[in-house]
Amino acid sequence: MLLERIYDEDLAQASYLIGCQATGEALVVDPRRDVQQYLDLAAHHGMRITVVAETHIHADFLSGTRELAAATGATSYVSGEGGDDWTYGFEAERLHEGDTITLGNITLTARHTPGHTPEHLSYLITDGAFTDEPGYFLTGDFVFSGDVGRPDLLDEAAGFQDTRFAGAKQLFASLRNVFLTLPDHVQIHPGHGAGSACGKALGALPSTTVGYERRFAWWATYLANDDEQGFVDELLSGQPDAHAYFARMKRQNRQGPALLGERPAPRAVSTDALARGLSEGTLALVDTRPVDQVHAGTVPGALAIPSLGKAATHIGWAFDPDTDDADLVVLAQDAQTAAAYADHFVRVGVDALIGYTPTLQGLPTLVPPTIAPSELGAFLAQNDAAVLLDVRNRTEHADGHVPGSAQLNAGKVLFHQDQLPAKDAGPLVTYCQSGLRNAVAAATLRRTGYDVIELEGSYAGWSAWAAQQDTPQNEITGAAR
């Protein structure tokens, strides 16, 4: 048996290719939407992909199940559990508790493990060439290394009300009735790693075992003591913000993401054509340079995506394809680099990248306004309408913030402008921890019409400066005004 983990550092998301070397058949679980890597991996091992399966309706990325099945002719399998509200809207075989998929010598057994979502399936894998007992468990967003999937995303990002409590109890039952009934040696291969918003304490280890989690996971004591309420309370406390684009992912993944097919390479866009498109609003520029270079001068209205490594995450914050019909032109040295950005973008359903420009020369530029920590207090005192905005997670804000600041996560600013003052009310002074997330959020807000000033050094810079002052912190920013 072959088992390969395909990991996306951008979204902290794992998919898996499982192959039977005796027959040359392969199965992929939870593929992302840019599917070439799976095709290349199967070809490398001399295998053909015949089955594609999902664990659940994902919220954090756009599924590639339909895309990979269309590219290979593979049969798709999705959950048939969870009731009418969780029924997939596209053609695929439905799996229920105990159903199996056979792939040569390999058997996958579907186990219904609700909690993170009502329809969630996990897959027990038995390598029949060696044994008739399962040895591997693909747990999706059910069990991670050191954590379990959060049950509050349906409330947090998908518009449901108070489903978190029922979901937390379902997770407790799934752990007790499924996970802890397995032998300690069974290897766990989860759907996410550290950095994912699908849990609050995910470990960085790519895999774990039933026995290790039974003994050391934070939830183990609650299960051992049959303390459901203690488990629920601990699980629901301190969960990080969910990105607003998760709601769109849920909807599209349930309906079935649009098929991309063969995608054309991004084309070079001339300076004249770009300037004209920017003026007409038919094009939007994605500035991919580091934050310090963006701060030295960028194109008015440009989005800021400071690194390829987090391009999917950040474009999901900065661009809403449901409401914005502009085509995207990325600042990139060549078509190959631009195509890499396009691969990241389609993972969150942003399919609008059509071209690239290698330079900003000949385009109008502006220097985004910033303010030093030493100037912040006086500025706020002189501008009563100014709003100080922390764009970090609410848990970070709770651990310490610039006094007087409101909090709205960078992943929500575009989608929750109702929580911000009117665009003509006064300037927003924004900050994150180090400045990277703030650059993304600030550029996004400027493109929508806000007057945004970025705090130099963000919270880390302000904290270092404030520590050198004799004045109490709440007086430094005029928070008592």
From TrEMBL:
<feature type="domain" description="Rhodanese">
    <location>
        <begin position="382"/>
        <end position="471"/>
    </location>
</feature>
<dbReference type="InterPro" id="IPR001279">
    <property type="entry name" value="Metallo-B-lactamas"/>
</dbReference>
<keyword id="KW-0378">Hydrolase</keyword>
<dbReference type="InterPro" id="IPR036873">
    <property type="entry name" value="Rhodanese-like_dom_sf"/>
</dbReference>
<dbReference type="Pfam" id="PF00581">
    <property type="entry name" value="Rhodanese"/>
</dbReference>
<dbReference type="GO" id="GO:0046872">
    <property type="term" value="F:metal ion binding"/>
</dbReference>
<dbReference type="GO" id="GO:0006749">
    <property type="term" value="P:glutathione metabolic process"/>
</dbReference>
<dbReference type="InterPro" id="IPR001763">
    <property type="entry name" value="Rhodanese-like_dom"/>
</dbReference>
<dbReference type="GO" id="GO:0050313">
    <property type="term" value="F:sulfur dioxygenase activity"/>
</dbReference>
<protein>
    <submittedName>
        <fullName>Hydroxyacylglutathione hydrolase</fullName>
    </submittedName>
</protein>
<dbReference type="InterPro" id="IPR036866">
    <property type="entry name" value="RibonucZ/Hydroxyglut_hydro"/>
</dbReference>
<dbReference type="InterPro" id="IPR051682">
    <property type="entry name" value="Mito_Persulfide_Diox"/>
</dbReference>
<dbReference type="InterPro" id="IPR044528">
    <property type="entry name" value="POD-like_MBL-fold"/>
</dbReference>
<dbReference type="GO" id="GO:0016787">
    <property type="term" value="F:hydrolase activity"/>
</dbReference>
<dbReference type="Pfam" id="PF00753">
    <property type="entry name" value="Lactamase_B"/>
</dbReference>
<dbReference type="GO" id="GO:0070813">
    <property type="term" value="P:hydrogen sulfide metabolic process"/>
</dbReference>
<keyword id="KW-0479">Metal-binding</keyword>
